[in-house]
Specification:
single chain, about 650 residues, mainly alpha, 2 domains, 10 helices, about 90% helix, about 0% strand, coiled coil
Length: about 650
């Protein structure tokens, strides 16, 4: 019974495990195929798997068939288990009834043994008393013997004939009772002997006949259990391998999803980069137009500066001639003849007005140049950032060998040229700004000195006209200041010439950079306009080929899993379990414990029979025949007297 329960539990556990594993595997497969179909619908790919029938329909049909078969087998198994339970319940009831009868018979035997011992003791006492009376009463002289030897209870009293008659009647009654007891004991012995011999013979014959069968069935059961366990282990390994295969398929599908998402992100990024390139090309075109207009302005300003420098040169020559003429006049004149304050004032006024106009023009030009430099620096930063972004995008798109090769062949030289030109322009513009600052400082110092001289002259004219020496000194100071101003103007003219040359060189560099940028823009437009569709088509073809290979691998895995599911049936397992159950008999479920209990009962019966034989042999009765049982050598009575 315990083995059947254990087998039934193992069968139910294995059935549950197989069902759970099959359901989990089927759910994983359905989920995987559902995700694949959703992904195919989302991407609108026209690739169709080579199988003609839908895999999810095949899996559902297979699962339905397995469920029906499993339900039928479970119903059959439940019916057989119910029949076995009924047979076991009837057998246990019979065994319990037999045990109760055996216990009642044992109690009756104990009572009879106690009664037999009591009767034996009473019979012995009566026999002794009768023998003593017979020895003490010889012949007919009963009365004097009784009178001489009276029992202890009758000592001191006279023995009468009535007393003797009563004693005889008591003795006869005791003898009759003893005979009745002997007959009842013999009848009970016969019944017990017949019952014990029949039970023992039947049990011994059954045990002798069934022991080899039971040993064979036990061996077969052990072999079946080992085979069932090995089958269960093999099925567990198969389910584990199937689970690992399903997990691998799931990871492959996730990797496919991530690859498709990356491809979509790369395509979107390339589209955005193309749009940005178009916008930046338009911006660069506008910037080139602006640069052309500004270069034209710079050229016009250069021409204006040239005219101004020519005017300055002519005026400086005139001033030099006037100064030389004034020196000659001063040398010719005497010490009393000096230049008039009004003429000196008018002369200085004209000079400083021209100088102030020039300084303001230079300041305006410097401010304009600074603004243009700031705009050029901003544009240069934008172009540099755009180039860096394009290069980063091209580096990220490393899976596109054709596009990256083209971009690497065309873009780097232009980017290097533009960066070098921009760096040279920035350095030259910084140097120009430093030169302009130095020039402005010199011009401011000259203007301050001129203003101080004019103020000093007006103060001297208003304060004291009589001081001739002071006027001479002032005229000498004014002449020295004029010399200083002329030298400063010469230095300024030299600096202006150098600045004009630097501006011309910068304009040339700007034109060169503009042409290089225009060429680069044209190359980028030609590179990204014509082979864009071809590159995208090539990338899509590569991705579709890789995805097709992965889908073929998944299809192969699915077919292998379908074949494994077809082979994964529990029919053989249930058949082996049912054969094992049919081999067993219900009464042989607990044969080991039952045999031990039967042996103990036989030993107790043998002990009791030996005690009865000894008690019966003590009484003067003939010996009884003994017979030997088949499986045992010990002697047992048959109950016949």
């Amino acid at each position: 019974m315990e083995d059947l329960d254990a087998l039934r539990k193992e069968a139910t556990v294995t059935d549950q495990q197989v069902c759970e594993s099959a359901e989990g595997f089927a759910s994983i497969l359905l989920q995987v195929f559902d995700e694949m179909l959703q992904e195919r619908d989302r991407r609108m790919v026209t690739h169709v798997p080579p199988t003609s029938t839908a895999p999810d329909g095949l899996v559902n049909d297979r699962l339905d068939a397995l469920e029906k078969q499993h339900q039928e087998e479970t119903t059959k198994q439940e019916l057989q288990i119910e029949l076995l339970r009924k047979g076991l319940s009837t057998e246990t009831a019979q065994r319990k009834a037999l045990g109760i009868e055996i216990e009642s018979l044992g109690k009756r035997m104990r009572e009879l043994e106690t009664q037999n011992q009591a009767m034996k003791s009473s019979v012995d006492a009566y026999g002794k008393s009768i023998e003593r009376l017979e020895t003490e009463t010889p012949g007919d002289g009963v009365v004097p013997a009784l009178a001489t030897q009276t029992p202890p209870t009758l000592q001191g009293n006279s023995v009468k004939a009535e007393d003797l008659a009563e004693v005889k009647t008591v003795v006869e009654e005791c003898l009759s009772r003893v005979t009745e007891l002997v007959t009842t004991v013999q009848a009970h012995d016969e019944k017990l002997g017949e019952m014990d011999t029949d039970i023992l013979n039947e049990t011994c014959d059954a045990i002798v006949a069934k022991l080899p069968r039971l040993e064979q069935t036990l061996k077969r059961a052990a072999d079946d259990i080992t085979t069932l366990r090995s089958d269960l282990r093999a099925q567990d390994m198969g389910t584990k391998s199937l689970q690992t295969g399903a997990e691998r398929l799931h990871t492959d599908l996730q990797q496919l999803r991530s690859d498709t998402e990356k491809l979509q992100s790369h395509t979107e990024q390339l589209r955005t980069d193309a749009d940005q390139l178009l916008t930046t090309g338009e911006q660069l075109k506008t910037y080139t137009g602006q640069l052309q207009s500004r270069t034209e302005l710079l050229q016009s300003e250069q021409e204006h500066l040239k005219t101004d420098t020519q005017q300055l040169k002519s005026e400086t020559r005139q001033l030099q001639s006037k100064v030389e003429q004034s020196r000659l006049d001063e040398q010719r004149r005497t010490d009393e003849k000096f230049i008039t304050v009004k003429a000196f004032k008018d002369m200085n006024k004209h000079v400083f007005e021209t100088f102030s106009g020039w300084i303001e023009g230079v300041r305006q030009r410097v401010s304009a140049v600074e603004g243009e430099v700031s705009t050029l620096q901003g544009k240069n930063d934008q172009v540099r950032n755009h180039d860096l972004r394009i290069m980063a995008n091209e580096v990220q798109a490393g899976s596109r060998p054709v596009s990256t090769g083209q971009s690497q062949n065309h873009n780097p030289p232009n980017g290097q040229v533009s960066n070098q030109v921009v760096d040279l322009l920035t350095i030259q513009l910084e140097e120009k700004l430093k030169d302009y600052d130095a020039r402005l400082k010199v011009l401011e110092a000259v203007s301050r000195s001129g203003e101080q001289s004019t103020h000093n002259n007006t103060y001297e004219e208003s304060a004291n006209v009589v001081a001739a020496l002071a006027q001479k000194r002032a005229s000498a100071d004014s002449i020295e200041s004029m010399k200083i101003a002329i030298e400063a103007l010469k230095a300024q003219l030299a600096m202006i010439d150098s600045s004009i040359k630097a501006v011309c060189e910068s304009a040339k560099l700007v034109n060169e950079s503009q042409t290089a940028q225009g060429r680069r823009i044209a190359e980028l437009e030609s590179a990204y306009a014509h082979p864009w569709d071809e590159r995208v088509e090539r990338m899509l073809e590569r991705k579709l080929d890789s995805m097709q290979q992965k889908l073929e691998f998944i299809q192969h895995g699915y077919t292998s899993l379908d074949s494994q599911i077809n082979s994964l049936t529990t029919e053989s397992l249930f058949q082996s379990i049912l054969q094992h159950v049919n081999k067993y008999e219900p009464m042989d479920a607990l044969i080991g414990s039952k045999v031990e209990t039967a042996m103990q009962q036989m030993n107790t019966y043998e002990q009791r029979l030996g005690a009865l034989e000894r008690t019966v042999s003590s009484v003067d009765e003939p010996a009884h025949k003994k017979r030997k049982l088949v499986p045992f050598v010990q002697a047992v009575t048959n109950g016949k007297h």
